[in-house]
Amino acid sequence: MVAKKLKKHSMDFGKKERVLNYTCYNYQLSRPNKVGAVMALIRECQPKTIEEWEKWYFEKAFTESKNSIKITPEILTELGKRLHEKITEVVIPEWQAAFAELSLQDCIDYIYNLTINRTYDGFIREKSVINDGLSKHFPEVKFIESDNDLDHAGDIDYLGFVGDKAFGIQIKPITARANFGNYSISERMSANFRDFEQKYHGKVFIVYSLDGEIGNKDVIKEIEVEIKRLKKD
Hints:
The protein is of the alpha+beta class and about 230 residues long. Helix content is about 55%, strand content about 15%. Strands 1-2-3-4-5 form a five-stranded mixed beta sheet.
């Protein structure tokens, strides 16, 4: 049986794709708070043609933000203009300066640091958040590290078991450039969090580590509410 060849509608940007992807991701220009929950919308629509999907999107799409607004073609155009501005005014100058200074030793040190130093720092950070933070707040909860498959597929670092049910914990560092006040999860992560909730019945919480301590203290109250819910269900 010959496999059906799917027609592709995506544009090919060639070598420009990497810089477009990098900038769009770094400046969060395709997040749900900018363009809406596109995967949820297209699954709701179940379109047979791209024209059907395009029409549905502009009829139904709203930004996922505190002051939600309806998305129009003009809004997507404005996001494109902002993308161009970031690339030309910020990214290109930064990369040109980096290229001029980059050495062979930088590349060797980077790979070593990424593999050894950062992995160890992340491991210690996770342990501290759980053992010195959440475990002390919730001694009745059994926290275990996620297995490799779950960590890779579901973006979950730890599971907190309440009886035979569990909530998930993702631990992220707070850095000077991206703190928990402006972090926005991707649609892929949102979908994985929903899958986790269906399997384990508990929500997933993002805990931000500030030097091994919990940076977003409000998450403790949210977890407390979730534990009470899991005990009742």
